[in-house]
Amino acid sequence: MAKKGSVLGFSCAAFLLVAIGGNAAAPKSVVCSKKTQAFTGAAYDLRVPAGGICEVTFATITHDLIVEPDALVFIAKTTIGVDVIASRPQSIQTGHGAGPGRPVGHVRVGRDFSISGSPKREAFHGLCDLEVGNDLSITGTRVNFGFTVGDGDLCARNGYPTATVGRDLLVRNNTAVTDFDCCPSSILIGDNVVGRNLVVSANTVAAPGVLEVSDNRVTGDAICANNDPEPAPDDPSDGPNVVGGTNTCG
Prior knowledge:
Layout: H1 2-25, E1 30-31, E2 38-43, E3 46-48, E4 53-61, E5 65-67, E6 72-80, E7 84-87, E8 91-94, E9 107-109, E10 113-116, E11 125-127, E12 130-132, E13 136-139, E14 142-143, E15 147-150, E16 163-165, E17 169-172, E18 175-176, E19 187-190, E20 193-194, E21 198-201, E22 204-205, E23 211-214, E24 217-218, E25 222-225, E26 242-243
Parallel strand pairs: 1-3, 2-4, 3-5, 4-6, 5-7, 6-8, 6-9, 7-10, 8-11, 9-12, 10-13, 11-15, 12-16, 13-17, 14-18, 15-19, 16-20, 17-21, 18-22, 19-23, 20-24, 21-25, 24-26
């Protein structure tokens, strides 16, 4: 009888140790330091504070990447388990680190990737080598140097793959304002693979910038509506979208 009690006690103790060890190994939420301006490793949530800069490379974020207003973020060789939520960021760049010689590589987001709103500073975004499990959305932004989702003219020119979106790619209610001290401010949506629908609507691009929606492969519908100007190629090599359903994007 005493022997059975000892075995039972040992089993319970072993279970307790495993449970404690499992909890201890779970990653904690992290704020990207304004001092180091970089994050590598594991986190539950990673938050980039308002006005901060963060280079996220070789990272595993098991839950969300949260980007606060006026922040600038570079992401490469990183997996985000659930969502990327960027509210009024200055810049989100995927597929490469912060400058020449920095890491480049695939970024995977398990569920949704959203960029919304405009920062107080000049804004620009570049999404390359990106895989999104559900929806990718860019809505209600005002950009001074434009933004790119995929587009072989830019991503491929620098040796980066484009974007793959599991469900919907949504680009709505954005404004590109040209900075005449630099360059045209364009919205370029090209060479992406979209698992459900592509919607590009109510976007405004000031001349000489362009709105391009070209060379995308869309399983469902490609809908372009109420844009000023209407989508047009920015390069002779740009071709039509390949669409399984309705196509109003060319």
